[in-house]
Design goal:
The complex is a heterodimer of chains A (about 240) and B (about 55). Chain A has about 240 residues and is mostly helical. Chain A has eight helices and no strands. Chain A has one domain. Chain B is mostly helical. Chain B has one domain. Chain B is built from three helices and no strands. The longest helix of chain B is centred in the middle third of the chain and has 18 residues. The two termini of chain B are about 25 Å apart. The chains are: A mainly alpha (about 240), B mainly alpha (about 55). At the A-B interface, helix 3, helix 5, helix 7 and helix 8 of A face helix 1, helix 2 and helix 3 of B.
């Protein structure tokens, strides 16, 4: 359960940092009350989606089917995050930069128009929050601790809000790629574990296998970063 | 809606690669080499992450 809570907290931290950048950019145009209103509306949608998603998943009568579905969703999520983190770690893609994201948002013409800015804030928080939603629902339902997972996401939100209130600028110092790499390995470990278990495979170390899977993905990911850093990358090839 | 579907199902390339890894592990589970499924799936998924990084 602890692994699920840490994974949820880290996933949510990364997403809320990105959502904070959007709300900060929007707040400069329409003021904090309306910007926070847009964020609040998005959080309400996410809360409804979380309840709905958890309810739908608990309707699945077969534990194996539920475990398989959650395993597949987590694997699809984890493999993308790990892939992105490897690419950024190896320098194949630019590191995500909150200052640049903020400048891009402020350069958009529509952000200076009240209703368009509100929608930018709402859509931005909703899209960033969807990944948090997926992790909360998947890990929460599978470990029977949806409330704990949701609390971890809310705790991450509180931390990001506090950091934002102190910094009053985009939170570009947060080591997003390191967190994404860790979360990618963690989520992929849960996904792999549950997919094979639901198909009848018995892991030799039981639940402790999760740690060895995490170590496998982390070491493998670092090895791939090292490999790609050594190879000169020619755009369009490979 | 598009963002919601993409969050759940990823892009076609990722979906196909992950499906291939799972089917390969499933096939292995029905052979005498079933214990190796626990190595094949993580290895396949790590290779997929590596390929996604280069994409």
């Amino acid at each position: 359960m602890m692994g699920a809570i840490i994974t949820t907290f880290l996933t949510a931290s990364v997403e809320w940092v990105e959502a904070y950048t959007i709300i900060l950019a929007v707040a400069l145009s329409i003021g904090w009350p309306r910007a926070l209103g847009a964020a609040g509306a998005a959080f309400l949608c996410l809360a409804i989606l979380t309840s709905l998603g958890s309810f739908i998943l608990t309707l699945i009568p077969s534990l194996a089917v539920l475990q398989f579905l959650i395993g597949v969703f987590l694997t699809l999520f984890g493999v993308r995050w790990l892939g992105k983190a490897i690419a950024r770690g190896a320098g194949l893609k630019k590191l995500h930069n909150e200052d640049a994201e903020f400048a891009n948002l402020r350069a958009r013409a529509e952000i200076h128009e009240a209703s368009a800015a509100w929608w930018i804030g709402f859509n931005g928080v909703l899209l960033e929050g969807l990944e948090v939603w997926l992790i909360v629902v998947a890990l929460g339902v599978q470990t029977h601790h949806t409330l704990a997972a949701a609390s971890a996401a809310l705790a991450a939100l509180a931390v990001v809000c506090a950091m934002g209130a102190l910094a009053r600028r985009p939170l570009s110092k947060v080591p997003e790629n390191t967190i994404k790499f860790t979360v990618g390995c963690g989520v992929l470990s849960f996904g792999t574990f549950w997919i094979l278990e639901s198909l009848g495979y018995r892991w030799p170390l039981g639940d402790a296998t999760l740690l060895s899977l995490f170590a496998f993905y982390a070491l493998g990911g670092l090895a791939l970063i090292g490999l790609y850093q050594r190879k000169p990358h020619i755009p369009g090839i490979g | 809606m598009q963002g919601f579907l993409k969050t759940l199902f990823a892009d076609k390339y990722t979906l196909r690669a992950v499906a291939f890894c799972i089917l390969a592990a499933l096939a292995l589970l029905h052979t005498g080499a079933a214990p190796f499924a626990g190595l094949l799936l993580p290895a396949g998924l790590l290779i997929t992450a590596g390929l996604l990084a280069k994409k």
